[in-house]
Design goal:
- This protein has 435 residues and is of the alpha+beta class.
- The protein has helices spanning 2-22, 24-42, 60-63, 72-79, 83-101, 103-113, 118-129, 136-147, 152-159, 174-199, 203-211, 216-241, 248-254, 359-363, and strands at residues 266-270, 275-279, 289-293, 296-298, 305-307, 315-323, 328-335, 344-347, 350-353, 365-370, 373-376, 390-392, 397-398, 414-421, 427-432.
- It has a five-stranded antiparallel β-sheet.
- Helix 6 (103-113) crosses helix 10.
- The radius of gyration is 34 Å and the shape is extended.
- It starts with a helix and ends with a strand.
């Protein structure tokens, strides 16, 4: 008996081997798919250990030391004041995506199923499915072309004499726009599953209902929908499983959120003419931007420049730039002492700043521009000003590679001088060359 059992087991093993050899070409075709899953799905999973390591880019993932304690990275994340906002905002948007996007494919499938003209039905199905094959980069570009400040809609509004609107920067519109974009892109593709389920419904059910006097709505409500309801429930469960990952791509490519950090927006003060300059805010975003200096709101920006009510004292002043669709952007800048043309001398191609209050400023000069030409020293990146506050333009060239004639004595009656210093505001002055 044991011998017979061993022979049977041996026959099974041989039978399995023979079956594999018989279908060897099928297994060969499976190899690329298996390799893809192993390489791109299972291979990167070792990177999950980064969550428990004090990651050093120079040492790599495996070479970096373990975090101490092991949950340190998680503790830092939970302590971040923006974590709760980001987490619950993700949940809220994920639920909104499901609520707004889940019924669409079901409704579309039921409506397409009621069409009797097969060619018309197939044409519509292709049209509705096509957006799914567009990447979010393309979809984002389309939305920008249509809704941006210089987009199609605003161009039509401008041509008709109306006031343009920042559709992509209005925090009240951005979520509905994202949901509508997701519906437009994915409804046709998701409807295919329901259409496949509808195709499996027995025609005899419809025939029996028609004999009983049911109209098309009755057949759809009492036959079609109950037959695909189980499919809908399964897809709904799967949708909830991906709630934390929903919406990242469309948000990244559709929403115009730059600048998103404080260092993307810069502000500078010049107390000599009580001027505030703000850079980094798009033209269409000024309608949703609030700027304050030491708690007092500043309005009337034209091209990012606004005049203050009065000159400020020398020292630190807090400038807060808040764009509704961005994060709060805060910049602390220093108002320089008043400088006039009398504080600047230009003789024999030598520029001299004589005001004593700008000694520290001169030591940190990072850029000088004269009449639109950005200047630099004899070596790229070298200081423009000498320690005594002078610039000899015989040793200075423009950043475009021009010669020293960019600032010749007597070439113009007046010169616009723009000086940029690290930690200080941009200083814009006009001076006249000496005779």
């Amino acid at each position: 008996m044991a011998k017979e059992h061993a022979m049977i087991e041996s026959g099974r093993r041989q039978s399995l081997g023979k079956r594999i050899w018989k279908n060897r070409w099928v297994y060969l075709f499976l190899l690329p798919g298996i390799a893809f899953v192993l390489l791109f799905c299972y291979g990167p999973m070792y990177g999950l250990v980064v969550a428990f390591k004090d990651y050093k880019i120079s040492k790599g993932i495996l070479g970096s030391p373990w975090a101490n304690p092991w949950y340190n990275n998680f503790a830092m994340m939970f302590k971040d004041k923006k974590f709760n906002a980001a987490f619950f905002n993700t949940i809220r948007m994920g639920l909104a995506y499901i609520i707004t996007g889940f019924p669409g494919p079901i409704i579309l499938a039921l409506l397409l199923n009621e069409l009797r003209n097969r060619h018309y039905k197939n044409t519509l199905q292709v049209i509705y499915t096509f957006p799914n094959f567009l990447s979010w980069v393309i979809v984002g570009g389309l939305m920008t072309t249509i809704f941006a400040g210089e987009g199609v809609i605003n161009s039509l509004i401008r041509a008709s004499g109306g006031q343009t609107y920042g559709f992509l920067t209005d925090k009240g519109l951005i979520r509905p726009l994202l949901y509508a974009t997701s519906i437009w892109k994915g409804t046709g593709w998701s409807a295919i599953l329901y259409l496949a389920g509808i195709a499996g419904i027995s025609p005899e059910l419809y025939e029996a209902a028609e004999v009983d006097g049911a109209n098309r709505f009755h057949k759809m409500w009492y036959i079609t929908w109950p037959e695909i309801r189980s499919t809908a429930v399964i897809l709904l469960i799967l949708a909830f499983g991906g709630i934390m990952s929903k919406g990242y791509e469309d948000y990244s490519f559709v929403v115009q959120t730059k600048p998103a950090y404080a260092n993307d927006i810069t502000a500078s003060l010049a107390d000599d003419n009580a001027t505030l300059t703000v850079s980094g805010v798009a033209d269409e975003d000024w309608a949703n931007t609030t700027v304050t200096v030491d708690g007092s709101e500043v309005t009337g920006f034209e091209g990012g420049v606004a005049a203050l009510d009065s000159a400020l004292s020398v020292g630190d002043h807090k400038v807060v730039v808040t764009v509704d669709t961005y994060r709060d952007n805060t910049a602390t800048v220093t108002a320089m002492s008043a400088m006039t043309a009398d504080d600047i001398k230009l003789e024999n191609n030598t520029l001299t700043i004589t005001d004593d209050d700008v000694a520290t400023f001169i030591a940190n000069v990072s850029g000088v521009s004269v009449n639109g030409e950005n200047l630099r020293g004899s070596e790229l990146g070298s200081a423009i000003f000498n320690e005594d506050g002078t610039v000899n333009f015989e040793g200075v060239v423009s950043s475009h590679g021009n010669d020293t004639t960019v600032f010749p004595n007597g070439d113009k009656e007046a010169y616009e001088l723009i000086i940029t210093s690290a930690g200080y505001p941009v200083v814009i002055l006009t001076t006249t060359a000496a005779e």
